[in-house]
Design a protein that fits this description.
elongated
Amino acid sequence: MTSIRLDHKTEDRLNHLARITGRTKSYYLRKLISENLDDLEDQFLAEHRLETLSGRVELASMRERLGLED
């Protein structure tokens, strides 16, 4: 189980959406998380890799590693 705190404006919007559609707030929260988690993972993993980059790789070296040399 997970719980989150939302600011009042966001909570009001979520309550309104749930009320007018007849769905639960949990439904919308699950939908938001499942549909956006891949993008968040990609973004934060890429940022982490940039922060912990130990050195540069020359283009020629990378092309050779990937088998792209002519």
